[in-house]
Amino acid sequence: MTTSPHAAYRPEYFTPIYEMAVAQFEKAAASINLDPNVWQRFVVPKRALMVSVPIRMGDDSIRVFTGYRVHHDNTLGPSKGGIRYHPDVNLGEVCALAMWMTWKCALVGLPFGGAKGGIRCDPRAMSRVELQRLTRRYTAEILPILGPDIDVPAPDMGTNEQTMAWMMDTYSQFKGYAVPGVVTGKPIAIGGSQGRNEATGRGVVYTILEAMKHLGVQPEGKRAAIQGFGNVGSITAKALVEAGCRVIAISDVSGGVVNDRGLDVAGAIEHVARHGSLDGFSGGERLSNAELLEVACDILVPAALSGQITKANAERVRCRILAEGANGPTLLEADPILQGRGIFVIPDILANAGGVTVSYFEWVQGLQHLFWKEREVYERLREIMTTAFAQVLATAQEKKVDMRMAALMIGIQKIAAAKLARGIFP
Ligand code: GLU
Fold first, then answer.
1. Are strands 151-155 and 113-120 parallel, antiparallel or unpaired?
2. DSSP 3-state assignment of 148?
3. Active centre residues (catalytic)
4. Which residue has the higher pLDDT, 315 or 8?
5. 174 and 206 inside one domain
6. 74 to each of 98, 145, 322, 328, how far by Cα in Å?
7. Which percentage of the chain shows pLDDT scores above 70?
8. Are 302 and 293 in contact (CB under 8 A)?
């Protein structure tokens, strides 16, 4: 249900996930009495490019993939956001993820707008050579809307620092000189930042530790269940163990394992590095991804796909703190159920903002040709995450709204003020 002046007109990217992003936005916008003119401007992404990505496959046949890059907003600076390789990628999803990036960057005070990109493909079924061709051709196709001052991609689901290295190289080949600032999350050898790889997971844990402080809970021995064991889930698990928690359940595309006495997280990370997934990892009983969400625990971290916590299973989620490592893991109608059950939700745009925050550090270090030590990166990251957490909590308490609404209200307010100050062209 939406109330925007724009509600009557719903272009094709208004898929369920985009509707959800818009509905979240409109609820927050209504609570801050957002100027209706600015309101409308946030509902329609600034620009979206759909491209055909033809590549030669390993068997010599040609296959054409569909790629997207969406800039939701660029009021404060270049647009920023990851590139996703997944079989379900579509325009509506990319638009929703781009909008969430706008609020996320604003919330933690980065001079970026929001963007997202993706290719509809199954990277797990593709060879390294095919992935390299796919990445290079996609980069060439979206070249007109890329650049360190225009739009700066980063890794997301299904992509990694190697993908970023190929993007950086392709862009630089077109320019004729090295342009490290065109992407973040790249390898350290070509200007990546210390700590970027661990940033999202560590940031998730910084916010969990703040939530525990607020709730008067000690981390020692607290049980954590984590859905998704990619970059975000695995580093979150590792950092939770470092903080004294006990990781009792983990899962990935191949399913998961549960053991109330705790799992060997370092062993699981090694297993995935060797075998590509958690399949065959022992140390507990097998469980499905859906079952993992209902495991009795203190901390639940959905760090995989969106739309995991629904009206149907929100009643059965048994945790004290729910930290959203993934983007959009909780459907709008599940929020009041979780809140009614006293579950403390750390919303995605706050919980997983550590990734884009260190991306910002990487971009800044690249512009200055000056590189920071790992310790400095983590100190600055922790400072930004804890400050944002405190601001969101204060707003939630003052306005009597949940943490998601508070986070959205702060992010939207900041960009809205910038948009109003700039006015409208022409
Ligand atoms: N893909 C990550 C996110 O969803 C990181 C984006 C970035 O670093 O630009 O926040």
1. unpaired
2. coil
3. 116
4. 315
5. no
6. 11, 12, 31, 21
7. 98
8. yes
Count, in order, helices (H) and strands (E) of the chain.
14, 12
Do 134 and 28 share a structural domain?
yes
Nearest to 154 by CA among 111, 125, 194, 197: 197
| pLDDT of 10 | 81
pLDDT tens-place string over residues 13-72:
999 999 999 999 999 999 999 999 899 999 999 999 999 999 999 999 999 999 999 999
Sheet of 151-155, strands arranged across: 47-56, 62-71, 113-120, 79-86, 151-155
Q: How many domains does the chain have?
A: 2
The residue nearest atom 7 of ligand 1, judged by CA position, is 356
State whether the beta carbon of 154 lies less than 6 angstroms from ligand 1. Answer: yes
**In this predicted model, what pLDDT tens digit does every residue of 248-296 receive, in sequence order?**
999 999 999 999 999 999 999 999 999 999 999 999 999 999 999 999 9
Residues 168 and 234 in one domain: no
C-alpha closest to that of 117 among 136, 137, 149, 142: 142
For residue 94 and ligand 1, the question of a CB distance below 6 A is answered with no
- Decide: 105 in ligand 1 pocket, CB within 6 A: no
pTM of the model: 0.97
Residues of the domain holding 58: 16-178
Question: How far apart are the C-alpha atoms of 10 and 6, rounded to whole Å?
Answer: 8
Atom of ligand 1 nearest to the CA of 84: 1
